[in-house]
Amino acid sequence: MNLRSLFVAGYIALAAAGAHAHALLDHAEPRVGSQVPSAPAEVRLWFSEPLEGAFSTLTVTDASGRRVDRGDAQLDPSNKALLRVSLQAVAPGAYSVHWRVVSVDTHVTQGDFVFRVGG
Ligand SMILES: [Cu+2]
User: CATH says 23-117 is which class?
Assistant: First the structure.
């Protein structure tokens, strides 16, 4: 095998690994679409892959689009696949969670979901 074919084989192996490493939302707390009895102190999202914290965002808005998170979204220090943000003391109602994350393979994924507080 000459140098050029070695390089091509390595590139193909990297591309194949990357195709399976997108960060998908595995589960969340509060759970996607759930209703919780009282305002949670924070929102936590667990992803299928480790994230690049500097390029990953997580915000929470109320029904009128106003931010209710404290702007402190960060990866959990002991779990790079767990993104968390703390919340203001929110009233009963519907809240939207918006996430846009970069996995360590540099691929971007994003999504939204709603949870409800109170009856
Ligand atoms: Cu990927």
Answer: mainly beta
Q: What are phi and psi of 95, to 5 degrees?
A: -130, 140
> For the chain, which residues score pLDDT lower than 50?
10-14, 18
- Domain assignments of the chain as residue spans, ordered by start: 23-117
State the pLDDT at residue 21: 75
- CA of 20 from ligand 1 middle (Å) equals 6
Q: How far is the CA of 105 from the centre of ligand 1 (A)?
A: 6
Bridge-based pairing state of the strands 25-29 and 57-61: unpaired
Distance 107 CA to ligand 1 centre (A): 4
In the chain, the DSSP E strands lie at 25-29, 35-36, 42-47, 57-61, 74-76, 79-86, 93-102, 108-117
Q: Residue 73 and residue 59: Cα distance in Å, rounded?
A: 8
Residue 104 CA to ligand 1 center (angstroms) comes to 8
Q: Which residues surround ligand 1, an ion (CB under 5 A)?
A: 21-22, 105, 107
